[in-house]
Amino acid sequence: MLPTRDEILRSVTFKTSRSGGKGGQNVNKVSSKVELIFDLDANESLSDDEKTLLKEKLSNRLDSEGLLHIVSQEDRSQLLNKEKTIAKLIDLLKRSLIVQKKRKPTKIPKGVIEKRLKNKASTAEKKKNRKITDF
Fold this sequence. Notes:
With 135 residues, this protein is an alpha+beta fold. It has helices spanning 5-10, 25-29, 48-57, 78-96, 110-129, and strands spanning 12-17, 33-39, 67-72.
């Protein structure tokens, strides 16, 4: 089960820095880039099974200490970037905690097999009738 926003924010730390790229004075003065660091192990609202599932699914996004980093620098406002990182984290957790059902292989129905064989036989008969026979 997905923890609430408040529970997630307890095990999250934020780092701010100056955003790169175009922007002139605003970029040079304001620390609008926000990096969210989520510690999976420190989060008490997730069960052990959920933590292992997240570690498996997000293994390529975790650093060597098992921390998840999410960065946002699209907006000029630090607050908006902070909200975007939180939204990205919640979305990522939602998508990662979904367990897909195992597919049960089913047998092909007899009617479908019979229809295919009948169609095959009629096509073979058509082609057989196209042959020119010598008398």
